[in-house]
Design brief:
alpha+beta, single chain, Immunoglobulin-like
Length: 552
């Protein structure tokens, strides 16, 4: 008798150890969001407890599955007996407790007979190889309904309803299993609805297709508008040693890529011509002193600005309200002055093309996030925020194209991050619309870089600006030395131009350790370095003070 009991206990222990070694899904939750066209977006989250090392895992999902993905993993899609799933492989093996989040779409869930639409939703595919200890689900319907949902399982049929709790609140159906589920168990929900509940299920275009078509339409409209009203002759830019004709340094950012005119460079240009001098006293104040009056040798706008800067005095403090107001007037009036000369009267408005592109990006963002976002209480608000986010993302990418010319690192970084985010969203959401709007944002930034439809004079001046920029960025050291021997003030005369084009540091570095003669128009109470690099650093500090004066 004792031997029999010992043998029985050994068998029981062996059975328990074998059962303990079985892998299980400790929890699984299926969140479903149903659209008005009957398409269902599913987010399935499960925790799998693996007792043994596995090199391959299959996640069966069901029939009519589209865009299946496992967040954070690179899984391959497979189909067996009309059932689509994801196969995850690992060279190092998978074991222990792992949590997976799977997203996919289900279509073809709605059938209609007479005046009744039947919605059949497979919540759990019957191909899972592991038992499920705890299972929950939620189904978010597009509109309210009065019918009660029915449930059916693979093993127990409709009797499964006695082993689960279900609640319906407004448009949300929630359920939970009271007991664990066996491996290869399935669960589906059936809901009978009045005709017309799913307005898009039998329509030619679903909501997603309509959004895609709308994005394509906006892109086509932007391209047509560009071709009809903005397209200009190709710019010809060859390196030239001289600045553009009748263009002063403060104008260059606007001519180059429609950036804000640089008033500080205009002041330095006036100083290099002898109209004023710039001095930084012991207290660090920037003092402008008028040397001569400005006459009709300069254009009328410059004369007005120069007169306003000094008024009845011969001295102007760089931190004064007068300097700030004059800078604001120059920044406001300079674009108007050049727009009349650079562009045809029939030219369109680049803002319209930029706006169409930004709107297309917003719709593409909405389309992608509607695929990515799981069911959540504030889903509509989050989607709206991402829709709004698409506008600045597109504009930042367009702005980054402009920033390349002026080497503005911050704008380049923001535009690059926006482009990277769109590429990531393309992989997880709607790839077609996201990649198209990304390409369109880059194209729009490139084609609106120099403004609208250019006149003959506009082509000439902008081409000269590009050529002069090319010269400043690529001039050889030997050529620079030759120009410096001809004119000891060569560095100081061209420095405002180089700085306005974003090439100031590069231009100063080209002079290396060459000793320069003192600058005729800029001085400080403390002795200035006689090398280009040191002078440029001190001069940039002064410009920073003037920038603060303009912005405050």
């Amino acid at each position: 008798m004792r031997k029999f009991l010992l043998l029985l206990a050994s068998c029981l222990l062996l059975t328990v150890s074998v059962l303990a070694a079985d892998s299980t899904i400790t929890s699984m939750k299926t969140d479903c969001r149903v659209e008005t066209d009957g398409t269902c977006y599913v987010t399935q989250t499960l925790t799998l407890e693996l007792q043994d090392l596995q090199s391959e895992l299959d996640f069966p999902l069901g029939e009519n599955v589209r865009r299946p993905e496992i967040a954070g993993y690179s899984a391959k899609k497979y189909t067996a007996d009309n059932v689509t799933g994801l196969r995850l492989t690992s060279n190092t093996g998978i074991t222990g407790a792992r949590t997976f989040t799977i997203t996919y779409e289900l279509t073809g869930l709605v059938s209609q007979a007479n005046d009744v639409q039947t919605f059949t939703l497979p919540l759990l595919c019957g191909r899972w190889e592991w038992p499920i200890e705890h299972y929950d689900f939620t189904v978010s319907m597009p509109k309210e309904f009065t019918a009660s949902p029915g449930f059916e399982s693979g093993y127990q049929g409709d009797a499964i309803e006695g082993y689960m709790t279900v609640s319906v609140r407004d448009t949300m159906i929630s359920g939970s299993m009271k007991d664990s589920l066996k491996d290869r168990e399935s669960l589906k929900m059936t809901l009978e609805l009045p005709s017309g509940y799913f307005s898009g299920s039998h329509a030619k275009w679903s909501a997603n297709w309509l959004a895609t078509v709308f994005v394509l339409l906006l892109i086509v409209l932007a391209l047509l508008y560009w071709a009809r009203t903005l397209r200009s002759a190709r710019l010809r830019a060859s390196a030239r040693m001289l600045p553009p004709d009748s263009v002063q340094p403060g104008d260059l950012p606007y001519l180059l890529c429609r950036e804000r005119p640089n008033f500080n460079m205009l002041v330095c240009y006036w100083a290099s011509l002898g109209y004023l001098s710039i001095f930084v006293n012991e207290k660090g104040n920037v003092i402008l002193r008028r040397r001569v009056e400005m006459g009709n040798e300069r254009r009328r706008l410059e004369c007005r600005l120069f007169s306003e800067l000094f008024g009845d005095n011969d001295v102007c403090d760089g931190a004064s309200l007068r300097y700030k107001r004059t800078a604001a007037r120059a920044i406001e009036q300079t674009p108007r002055y050049w727009d009349r000369r650079l562009y045809e009267k029939s030219s369109g408005n680049i803002v319209l093309m930029q706006g169409l592109c930004a709107l297309a990006t917003s719709v593409a963002m909405l389309l992608s996030m509607s695929v990515i976002l799981p069911v959540m209480s504030a889903r509509g608000l989050v989607l709206f925020l991402f829709f709004l986010l698409g506008i600045p993302m597109s504009l930042l990418i367009q702005r980054a194209v402009h920033a390349i010319y002026l080497r503005e690192v911050l704008w380049l970084a923001l535009g690059g991050l926006s482009a990277l985010a769109m590429v990531v969203l393309a992989g997880a959401g709607d790839a077609l619309t996201m990649l198209l709007t990304l390409a369109m944002s880059v194209f729009t930034g490139w084609q609106t870089l120099h403004g609208g439809k250019r006149s003959e004079l506009g082509n000439q001046l902008i081409g000269q600006t590009l050529g002069f920029r090319k010269y400043l960025s690529k001039a050889s050291d030997s050529h620079t030395e030759m120009m410096l021997r001809r004119d000891g003030q060569y560095f100081y005369k061209l420095l405002p131009y180089a700085e306005a084009l974003g090439l100031g540091a590069q231009f100063a570095a080209r002079f290396g350790d060459t000793e320069l003669e003192p600058c005729d128009w800029y001085g400080e109470a403390n002795e200035l370095p006689n090398q280009a690099g040191g002078f440029y650093s001190r001069w940039r500090e002064t410009l920073a003070l003037l920038d603060v004066s303009i912005r405050k």
